[in-house]
Amino acid sequence: MARYIFVTGGVLSSLGKGIAAASLGSLLQQRGFSVKIRKLDPYLNCDPGTMSPYQHGEVYVTEDGAESDLDLGHYERFTNTNSSKADTITAGRIYLNVIERERRGDYLGATVQVVPHITDEIKDFIRNDSQDVDFLIAEIGGTVGTDIESVQFFEAIRQFGNDVGRDHVLYIHLTYLPYIATAGELKTKPTQRSVKDMLSHGIQPDILLCRTSKIIEDDEKKKIALFCNVPLERVISAPDVSSIYMVPINLHNEGLDRIVCKHFGLTSKEPDLSGWKKFTKTLACPEGEVVIGIVAKYSALQDAYKSLNEALIHAGVANNVRVISKWINAEDLSPDTLQEAFEGVHGILVPGGFGERGIKGKIMASSFARANKIPYFGICLGMQVAIIDIAQNLLNLKDASSTEFGPSPHPVVGLMTEWEKDGKRELRTESNNLGGTMRLGSYPCVLMDKTRIASIYKTGTISERHRHRYEVNTTYKNDLEKVGVVFSGLSPDGKLPEIIELKDHPWFIGVQFHPEYKSRPLSPHPVFVAFIQAALNQSRLV
Ligand code: GLN
User: Fold this and answer.
1) Pocket lined around ligand 1, Cβ cut-off 6 Å
2) Residue nearest (by alpha carbon) to ligand 1 atom 8
3) For 386-413, what is each residue's pLDDT tens digit?
4) For residue 80, what are the domain limits?
5) Is the peptide bond before 205 cis (omega within 30 degrees of 0)?
6) Which of 357, 412, 436, 511 has the fewest CB atoms within 10 Å around its CB?
């Protein structure tokens, strides 16, 4: 039977519960155990697909097409396993499930209540399909003591401990110790308060992970242990680090994985941390650097492009260079500012996006990279703008556009229904609430022999994750090929362009999918690795 580890948070949000859960998952995995990590979010949206990246950071997409919280990305990156729809839920979805059941009459007229109906639904989600793993780690979103939406989750995980037996659960509480410079001290009272809040829900944390800006001295640890009723060795110091990828090693040095195994009475080998050590060593002291110009709409908000940023870091380490991202607001680009904006840039990347805002700037960026032979990587919308640029400037179709931005006389990007009579895409997964037409999750793609992309992937068929509605219009395929576009990756039925590249260009690739979702620190994505390699070559030219 699985052991269940619950990760809760106190004092502040954004302390890194997701990274802590993911790091523990990795350590247990390196000890030879199998691990699943799940996220329970307290907000009432039924899924994060429609939430603004400004508020919630990126929407992470799983293999099976779940639009999820970005923490699932951390879990995948740290444990190198794939998450699924069954690993993410929100309070909204829990309530919807219960209310739909009530409407169907499944409760036979019983009074439907938070306890037991909502809490049972939460427990079922946690338990579902967990019998085959050694550890199920469940991260509870929100902050204890402040968010009323989280209360039902705390109640559910309290009950869970009784249901499966206390020897099969472990409660980890992530908390924060502020440093007060005038007193020269780390303060423990907010942590004491937070543990009291957990106790008020009937949960005594077994382990405290204490986030701080400084190492916690033994005296402070003793005080926390005493006031929070936790053995001294279970007060774990989690100081700020320069990279999230250092967290597994730090937590191991603090004894976290050993203590977890001891708690459950398990013996195992020491974890193999050689991969993490090698990665973090190169990350800290790479031999060179490259500058990537990223042209985007939410350029001020890093969390909106979480997986992209991480994929660039992974590819940088693989090339032994630091990747410096130069964020360029697409709306600030104009023919007059282009040259200056890309000064000193060794590669240009246009990431995914929705809506017309900033689109002109993105087309200009792609055009600039094409004409100046600067490595270009277009992801999803980034591939679509490349096609629009080529149509406008090489095919001379001045009004070429995507129908996403309104009707166009030359819809080089659009919905398949617009150019094929029975233009229905086979959609295995669909967005629930965005009109049901979004292509989500992983789809296969056949690569054309002897193309750049085939030499990068070193295989004939790949599978990558999607999140888009529009497609490159194959009506224009022949014309685009005549001006040097190679359709180097297509859906197996040949109807959907998945990858384009340019013939007479050092490195110009557009992909309709999001390769960043599948990049992991210890297994970087080949297209990102090749792009950074091309940027590195470019940096040697200038
Ligand atoms: N807005 C475009 C579409 O829906 C691109 C989406 C994306 O970049 N993820 O097709």
Assistant:
1) 352-354, 380-381, 404, 467-470
2) 352
3) 999 999 999 999 999 999 999 999 999 9
4) 3-278
5) no
6) 436
